[in-house]
Amino acid sequence: MQDSILLSVNDLHTWFELKRWGFLRAGFVRAVDGVTFQLKRGEAITIVGESGSGKTTLLRTILGLARPTAGEITFAGRRVDGQKAEDLAWLRSQVGFVQQDPYGALAPFMTANRILKEPLAINKVNEDEHEQRIRGVMDEVRLIPVDDFLNKFPHMLSGGQQQRLVIARAMILHPRLIVADEPVSMLDASVRVEILELMRNIQHTHNLSVMYITHDLSSVRYFSECVFVMYAAKMVEKTDVREVVRNPLHPYTQALLTAIPDPDPENAGRFRDIPPGEPPSLIDPPKGCRFHPRCPHIIKGICDAEEPPEFQPAPGHFVQCWLYKQES
Ligand SMILES: Nc1ncnc2c1ncn2[C@@H]1O[C@H](COP(=O)(O)OP(=O)(O)O)[C@@H](O)[C@H]1O
Ligand SMILES: [Mg+2]
Fold first, then answer.
1. CA dist., res. 224 & res. 233, Å (int)
2. Which end of the chain is more exposed for a tag (fewer CB within 10 A), N or C?
3. Could you tell me which residues are beta bridge partners of residue 33?
4. Sign of CA dihedral 241, 175, 169, 100
5. Helices 127-140 + 159-171 axis angle, to 10
6. Domain holding 247: CATH number?
7. Which domain holds residue 288?
8. Which ligand is nearest to the CA of 52?
9. What is the reported pTM?
10. How many helices (H) and strands (E) does the chain have?
């Protein structure tokens, strides 16, 4: 059903031009290079990929913080890729952003109360509502008792509490979507699960959509409905969480899964088959499939020659890999 789609991203490209040297054009960093996906209302998706695969640039482009080179972004039925000020202001009132580094995201000289008041003031929310809204979100993210936290500055909070405050700020305008860019990667392992569970609870309570970005596939199992895998600026596999764990199709996704430490002591020390090598340059990506130089299943003459289109070997399971070419 078309109207259950909140966000639709179609063939999105975000390229950064490199500095010119004299009369030579130095080229482009193709940080996002033809990404298509949809997010439904109330649904959580995870975007997973190694550092440098274009995850943050994808988010920044969706939020209007980076200019798309080509492609379309539609949010709640409205095109928002034109970088028009009114569209972006509207979009930012609809989308809450949770960054990777909570301390860097919070103004150090502002109290929690002021940090939460600011978006309300900017968006001209009736003053009478401010206190109730601020107390409401603080209670929801468990910064309680609220009176103990209202006048605290960010440096007086633990890393986990800072991230709770960032989540509270992301929630305060009652957004339809929360975008979280590696929200727990800078936190102590002991609080990571709590923060992910908090986001999951908030998602269910408010029927919110969530885009959760991570380089760590092991954290998706208890978080989202769908997983989208990025490799070298492309979305190479899209499917639901159970399927990605049970039946990963792309050789890169298979490699990511084997890289997760196995908690079973019987398997400790078992050799894991991770393809050697590094992700490719995004300035001059390899011809054909971008994973072919590392791929254990390469079909010579095909994978190194032509870019794979998206195949759908099973309903709702999409993969950009020649191994799944359907016979016609
Ligand atoms: N503003 C920018 N100018 C030039 N290159 C950029 C810019 N932002 C990101 N990049 C490059 O784009 C690629 C993808 O980066 P990023 O989106 O941050 O990946 P990820 O979040 O997956 O680690 C990297 O090669 C990065 O250096
Ligand atoms: Mg990033």
1. 21
2. C
3. 13
4. positive
5. 140
6. 3.40.50.300
7. 2-324
8. 1
9. 0.92
10. 10, 12
